[in-house]
Automatic annotation (TrEMBL), chains A, B, C, D:
Swiss-Prot/TrEMBL catalytic activity: N-acetyl-L-glutamate 5-semialdehyde + phosphate + NADP(+) = N-acetyl-L-glutamyl 5-phosphate + NADPH + H(+)
Pathway involvement of the protein, from the record: Amino-acid biosynthesis; L-arginine biosynthesis; N(2)-acetyl-L-ornithine from L-glutamate: step 3/4
Protein name: N-acetyl-gamma-glutamyl-phosphate reductase
Entries under InterPro entries matching the protein: AGPR, AGPR_dimerisation_dom, AGPR_type-1, NAD(P)-bd_dom_sf, Semialdehyde_DH_NAD-bd
Any GO CC annotation of this UniProt entry: cytoplasm
Subcellular location: Cytoplasm
Protein family membership: Belongs to the NAGSA dehydrogenase family. Type 1 subfamily.
Protein keywords: Amino-acid biosynthesis, Arginine biosynthesis, Cytoplasm, NADP, Oxidoreductase
E.C. number: 1.2.1.38
Active site positions, chain numbering: C149
Length: 342, 342, 342, 342
């Protein structure tokens, strides 16, 4: 059975990545693509790498007849997304890739994003889209909120450890290295090749990155008490890939065992042999997460390193994984392609 | 029906690329992987990006029982390949990715490669593996010789024009820009990140690159007279992608029409609208070729630009395309994945 | 004696490069820096890599008192430059880095740039700034027009050959590979790291690049007859460096000899041993030009390859070289720093 | 007065960087360059970017007459260096860039490097070469041991804080991002462009990196008690630049003040305004260090970020800075060039 799919915001990177992934899915058919500023253009004009595909042209959202659509991916900017989704048919299945429905607490939302939420009741309805940890709820959900890409990476590195009680909760440090596509197709000087290649820098320093809202919500719920991590992202001269280096207190072997138990049956999570460091090179273009654990010469200290592709597992791949569950498809359908290396 | 596959030389880039592609093919099963120096290692150790796959460990060639194998990809170094293939069972279907069986004339082989050929009769038997132009012969072939990656790119840019008689034959210039993975997993100073990134240079200048042997053979056969092109490759700070800029005499519109006719039904060749320049960004990781044509302010001069991914369409993707034909599979099976962008 | 210097348009790459170079010049002092949109900001805010220098803040042009200034570098956008320079004091020495005064023929200017020139008499006065070939005129000039970066590279590769009559004039092809900083600090999608890194493409195909105006003017004047080259630029995933591959008819040894004679005493031009290919890696950040020559297997065909750093020798370094001559300084002062490798 | 200089190990990156820097120094003259495997070659052959310079050819060490040499830079591999330096004239001033004389305690040396030291008494004599903190001792030293590049970066980020007592000593975490030139001109697969570009990974995880020996020695001496930091390096797809992100307990404003006091008169250390993140882009090719400080939403936690160019301030620039002091030159001579951006 073929499911009919719309992608709103198809002229950005996560939109294009959805198209790439759906191209390899046997049971999904893209019937509508929106792009406000580029409406009327073909996808071949906006993304020449998709030229070989038979795709609808970009249109405006109001031109889409949602009656014939089974599931809608929403890859719109933050804040725009909630306003659009609020007005979509209430029977439409939706996977949102923006930040708008990630936080369940309206106050937390306002704190991190600065505005009142325009669709409060849907904020309550939305299921958090980290598939491996919300699988059952996602299966029955109508609206799933895709996670932040940093937030996903950090949670893969820490959730099983918090659940298993094998690490301290008050001194967790997440040093994150993030590829530039996470910033989207934004025209900013620091994202130009001339200014980004061949160097790197931290940003959003001082505990100000919005993905902290997700960490707080999720880790605190898991622990049953407030958990605040220290999190600093760094912008890397690379297009895809996030690497989280988590510094934690705990026994490294117990940490490895907790991962081994938690991820044993996960099709997309690979735990490396103890003491092995994963690399973003090894997950590029794929839906896989690689996790490594090592101890330290200082007793009781350990590091956990998690890597994933921010556009795939951190965003559009995760979204398709969730859509598969919502549509009754096999969770891995269209997502088992091997990473691209070199 | 599942075909059993062996890959000789699986520890190099083209070997790993074959594994990546075959992972997406429903009817091929990898049953043996050889790697002389790394025999005994798992593929996860040699290529961690393939960790999620259930693959045989690397072994030595002599450990492989070819009786149960339907087709063997041979991704060995030049010269080694002919010696190995010579001794394989004569009933085994083989796709060779080395240069050893590309040239049909033993003298030409010796001229460009410096040694006498060790398997002369097989050199005669081998079919040249540029699928789009040798499709019928490949279907019935036992041994197919994969083309050089530069040679493939140049031929996509020029064969239909020579066949249609729309360009001059005596002043063809091919300026080639080649990504570094074309040099293989070779430990050379100029291939180090520190020495290659952020710059570029020509190499094999003066008409000395071995792929000239293929151009001479193929273009002369097509034209029915000797054709010698001037060809200069340049090493680019990128991992995948070849861009051929062909400078030719001829009417640009007639050239575009010749391509349009020649490639109309080709699943992997995309002719861009007249005057549009293709980019290697738009074919990365895929089996597609993009071709652009433009005139010049100088009457009677035109440029043709062809791009492809050297590891995929220029090597391992082409090899799988040929294997599909040899095995009675659909030619495009396992090869329709969209390019990875960004 | 210290010369007082103003830089107009100091918030762009060529402006910042001028500051970098002047920092190493013992006899120049920067007394004014303009940047219209960033007026009021310090250079440390606009270019943190210049933080250690004691520099005036950015101001608007009208705030500058030109009475105390000996020489003004004008790194403004095309068309703006002519309007600003028209109104500067007529006694002020000026080195313009824009395209506005490169073409001497008003009709040629209009053809390539699309508008009537706003300072026609100054267009006649301006001396073309390719130092090695206009040295004597530059010494006495008040207004010097810096060359295009591609135009400079192509001329280093061809001028001595046209002058010496050792190449044919009707089949010259210039295949140019250009780093992205040549496009300036422009916010365009194709200049983003995510879209440029790891790939390449031709642009301005079909003989439409504006630097053709310079080639036509200069080569025709040298030859004493019209000379039209075929020129195609390609955008490279690198920040600095231009590589020109010139395909010419002629004897390669005679070509090498012509270069050897022409450049024997040039402090910034290095002719490589015959048959050696230069690399942009070897001139990065410097004012040097490297030139290589090779023959071809086709008799009577040769290639010439020239490389330089577009921001230094192709723009700001050339500008300082010219300023040195105009101010009576040693031509090489502040310009002999070695390239940065790796 | 001109000082005569020899560089041992001139065929590696730090050797070439020394040549680049000395080229801009008015009072140093290179009279001998050694390179064991490349003896007999010219520097233009080994490093074409130095082609314009008039340099001695590479020779073997035993061919050098040290009688006429004032100072010798030793850029040899670890372990080789101690054996060579042991046998050099005892009156020769030496700046060693290897790890051999960094650790004063023979047991610590053996622990981190695995072998007994071959020149124990010189190990005692050597002065640790972090100029800003050992200036007076370096002025009178005969043998100065250049620091590790990571070790230098981490110490710029932490020494003033330990001295001022403004941070806790038991929970310091150093997350380091290191450019590939720090690995030298080594032929290893993971240093190839094809395997390093576009991705990143941690290495030497688990507290095993040798630079920990330097941290332990220096921080413990400063604090007057054992200090052990947790340090994890990450390999970056860039050629130059180290970024240290230090996670510390302490008041962020007090930290900023401590830096402000400590570095007020340092010509090469730039403290950024509070809350500003430095970037490796802004120090490339220069001898500058940029330092930024920020607090966190968690009270009492702060981050310090320090960046420098590993080949310049982290190695060869530091070496020249020390040589200047040892030779009675101005400390900054030849080192004030601005960074290269973009």
């Amino acid at each position: 059975m073929t499911h009919k799919i719309a992608i709103l915001g198809a002229s950005g990177y996560t939109g294009a990545e959805l198209v790439r992934l759906i191209a390899g899915h046997p049971n999904l058919e893209i019937v509508a693509l929106s792009g406000e500023r580029k409406a009327g253009m073909t996808m071949a004009e906006v993304f020449p790498h998709l030229r070989h595909m038979d795709l609808p042209a970009l249109c405006k959202i109001e031109e889409i007849d949602f009656a014939g659509i089974d599931l809608c991916f929403c890859a719109l900017p933050h804040k725009t997304s909630q306003e659009v989704i609020r007005d979509l048919p209430k029977t439409l299945k939706i996977v949102d890739l923006s930040a708008d429905f990630r936080l369940r607490d309206p106050a937390a939302y306002k704190k991190w994003y600065g505005n009142d939420h325009a669709a409060l009741e849907m904020q309550q309805e939305a299921v958090y889209g980290l598939t491996e940890f919300y699988r059952d709820q996602i299966k029955g959900a109508r609206l799933v909120a895709g996670t932040g890409c940093n937030a996903a990476t950090g949670q893969f590195a820490l959730r099983p450890l918090i659940s298993a009680g094998v690490i301290g909760l008050d001194d967790i440090i997440l040093d994150m290295k993030c590829a530039v596509s996470g910033a989207g197709r934004s025209l900013k000087e620091n994202l130009l090749h001339a200014e980004l290649s061949e160097g790197y820098n931290a940003y959003a320093i001082g505990g100000t990155h919005r993905h902290l809202g997700e960490f707080d919500q999720e880790f605190s719920a898991l622990a049953g008490r407030p958990v605040k991590v220290q999190f600093t992202p760094h912008l890397m001269p690379a297009n895809r890939g996030i690497l989280a280096t988590a510094y934690v207190g705990g026994d490294a072997q117990a940490i490895w065992q907790a991962f081994s138990a938690a991820y044993a049956d996960e099709p997309f999570v690979e735990l490396l042999p103890f003491g092995t460091a994963p690399s973003t090179h090894d997950v590029r273009g794929s839906n896989f997460v690689h996790i490594g654990v090592a101890g330290d010469r200082i007793d009781g200290r350990a590091i956990v390193i998690a890597v994933l592709d921010n556009l795939t597992k951190g965003s559009s791949g995760q979204a398709l994984q969730n859509a598969n569950l919502m549509l009754g498809e096999d969770e891995t359908e269209g997502l088992m392609m091997a990473p691209l290396f070199p």
